[in-house]
Amino acid sequence: MIPRDHPRYRSLVIRERIADAALKGIVAMEGVGAHGRGEAFDYLIGEKTTESALLAEKTAAALFLSAKKPVISVNGNTAALAAQEIADLQEATGAAVEVNLFHRTEKRVEKITALLEEEGVEVLKGKFERLLPLSHDRALCLRDGIYTCDVILVPLEDGDRCSALSAMGKTVIAIDLNPLSRTAKSASLTIVDELTRALPNITGSCSHLKGEEIEKLIRDIDNKYFLRSAVKEIMGNLADAMD
């Protein structure tokens, strides 16, 4: 048991979720390592939602609300950490949810789908086809889902698929704690924040954004600004640690 008065209680609970999901076959073992890398970057940004990340989350909500066919792509780590948050975001936006995995087996797809459905997510199903310009199994997707979407949220993504989706003309929203990653640099909009902080902020923004504000947020998107702001936050925290 993790004591609730532990100064890093929330982070440790999240770590336990990943470990438990790995034992159940929901998270690939490689995903455990990826989580640790993200957690390290969360330390560097101060384990909080920064002002620029909050703006990015509002902008993501604007993109969802203006989309004709939005999709949320879910992998094992995302399902393990934020199935309920995905359900809430789907309800707020009407987005389709598609399971898409790098270390793909049909059993893992089934387990992740079951986990999501237990939390009320409506998971898109059908025949997976090799439709994306990639040499690995993340090329597999649903024709009526990721392949034909206009806006796609890709939490905890790998860089080559993010680049491929962007090259296909899709508006790609990434959630990535590493502002230096290929994913962060190739997305249309990058949210440098921890997943379970970011998703509720996007969902919450969907309830109050209106026409002109939505248009302005989309018009003013500057992904380099969001990445530079995250790097400056990290640099400031490192400088403070030396004082």
What does this structure look like?
The protein has one domain: 3-Layer(aba) Sandwich (Rossmann fold). The protein is built from ten helices and seven strands. The protein has helices at 9-23, 29-44, 51-66, 76-93, 106-118, 159-167, 182-186, 195-206, 211-219, 223-242; strands spanning 70-74, 96-99, 128-130, 140-142, 151-155, 171-175, 189-191. Helix 1 (9-23) packs across helix 4 (76-93) and helix 4 (76-93) runs parallel beside helix 8. The radius of gyration is 17 Å and the shape is globular.
Index terms:
Rossmann fold; alpha/beta; five-stranded parallel beta sheet; 243 residues
For the record, the CATH class is Alpha Beta
Category from helices, strands and their pairing: alpha/beta
> What order do the helices and strands follow?
HHHEHEHEEEHEHEHHH
Can you tell me the overall shape? globular
CATH architecture: 3-Layer(aba) Sandwich
**Neighbour order of strands in the largest sheet:** 2-1-5-6-7
pLDDT < 50 runs, ≥5 residues: none
CATH homologous superfamily name? Answer: Phosphopantoate/pantothenate synthetase
Q: What name does the CATH topology carry?
A: Rossmann fold
Number of strands: 7
Radius of gyration: 17 Å
The profile of the biggest β sheet is: 5 strands, parallel
Alpha carbon gap, first and last residue: 35 Å
- Which whole number gives the mean pLDDT? 93
Number of domains: 1
